[in-house]
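Rather than argue in generalities, we reproduce a single protein record, letters for residues, whole numbers for local backbone shapes, just as it appears below:
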Amino acid sequence: MEPENHTQISEFILLGLSEEEELQSLLLGLFLSMYLITFIGNLLIILAIITSSHLHTPMYFFLTNLSFVDICFTSTTIPKMLLNIHTHNKTITYQGCLAQVYFFILFMQLDDFFLSIMAYDRFVAICHPLHYMVIMNPRLCGFLLLFSWILSVLGSLLRSLLVLRLSFCTNLEIPHFFCEINQVIQLACSDTLHNIIEMYFATGVMGIIPLTGIVFSYSRIVSSILRITSARGKYKAFSTCGSHLSVVSLFYGTGVGVYLSSTTIQNSRASAIASVMYTVVTPMLNPFIYSLRNKDIKRALKSLVGIVTLNE
């Protein structure tokens, strides 16, 4: 099959989660509901923190950014999927596909970095409580935020540029509901060695290093909690990081599960269904985890509802 130059490609075809016509209405309703819950839930977390002065601390500063990134993360893929189902049109433009690749990687990496920074924040709060505000000062928080964005932008830009160099064959069908970079690379007719090497390298730098930071932080946290003599003190210390630990477990658990399923299951459609867990379900559950397990967020949400009610 002769390769086509990538400049001649106008669009890809997203096959979605299912080609059965009777399931399309169900998928439309299900994913629209999950997207709205994700958007509204994370937006409420952001507004609750902004409007509550007692939540203007480093921990909630990064939680605000995490909620914003989760909104952007799901908005990168789900609206296009819903539009395709509604219009019965499975195409996505070449430029739109590259944009999805770029922003999907960008916001996924930001999620990774913010979870790692929040783990470090909990480490400082529990292991060095007297020096917490000195260590986690506004300058450091701003630096960590800027550093995360710069690395994520550069990492996603590099991978997008490598995809831009590829030439594609006549088969442009992607067995997924968005332009997932691995699926796009598999359609290429040109040499993909550089892309594969870069993906493994990026997985190590952008995935393993933040995860190592999280494991280190929680190993020190657990060690510090075990030295506390009273059961009440242990519970209070653990409750400050319980929500974050739940979100970390959900994010990495679903991500690793999807990766393992993609290596053992040859069916790309099954892998696409599995990827729904970390692309849609995890961002949707995050607001519930933080609001249900965090008394400060609960109070802030009640105050926000009260403010809205009074304004009406």
The radius of gyration is 21 Å. Strands lie at 11-14, 91-93, 173-174.
